[in-house]
């Protein structure tokens, strides 16, 4: 009888329920979940503040890591350690806020050996997306040691991007609305901290070039300002919309400076690119995991943590132990 966090389109929106194994979706692989996590998209799904949930009732949770209990797929056997991120899980299909879930084999990636389930979810979609952004910037020719701007720097994607880029010896400038976390961001490897408000005014089409690369979780005017401030042939990995989905910019950065805007998606990215990204994540030094700020909660606390995330009050990563 697995416990799950069930979301319904009624009040109360979230309830912890015990369900029968037969109520689990009819899919190939049954996984005992050791950890899940809270991403911005999960916070929108749990609070109902974004149209994330496509079908009710829904077990949210876009990520989980755990151990295969039963498998009707020849790709996985009982005892295999696996990770799931994306594919619409927690949006269209029941997800990770559960002690046990049944999912498609195609959605699973083997958990690389050095990573525990806890470490895998310390990363989760946030860490995977940060790594995919780094890969996008590298493939677009980011010069070694150059200046890279990271927005939403205390968030999940942002704080992992700061750490990964600093680990790769880039000069990381972190943009945050939480100046009280400046010291922590420096511990993660940021060399300079910028106030979020510096990037929120109406931007001119082009400003003085300052950055060779950027990872942006914010969108809106922030992304417009960043595009105007890129060096010649600079590249920006666009990841998120925490500040807005619009993009009030002009073609000037693209046609006069050759700036590249690199769309970065973690949800539908094909298996082989996921596997490569997870191999790189598994090779990160242990110190990066111990530097990460983690709040660990159980299913009962997910609702409050989601409200806090939507209010911009969380930082680092929120881990969920469904058995807690
Ligand atoms: N493309 C993909 O596949 C993908 C994958 C993961 C996430 N995302 C998107 O990336 C964004 C970040 O996700 P996350 O999981 O890292 O969320 P998160 O942990 O909540 O981090 C978001 C950060 O953005 C900043 N922020 C929050 N509200 C803001 C606002 N109104 N204006 C400006 N800055 C704001 C805050 O950082 P500071 O206080 O430090 O400024 C916050 O910590 C979300 O939009 C999410 O949907 C996309």
UniProtKB/TrEMBL annotation:
Keywords: Oxidoreductase. SUPFAM superfamilies: GroES-like (SSF50129), NAD(P)-binding Rossmann-fold domains (SSF51735). Its EC number is 1.-.-.-. It is an enzyme of class 1 (oxidoreductase). It holds the Pfam family ADH_zinc_N. Gene3D superfamilies: Medium-chain alcohol dehydrogenases, catalytic domain, NAD(P)-binding Rossmann-like Domain. GO terms for molecular function: oxidoreductase activity. This is MDR family oxidoreductase. The lineage of its organism: Bacteria, Pseudomonadati, Pseudomonadota, Gammaproteobacteria, Oceanospirillales.
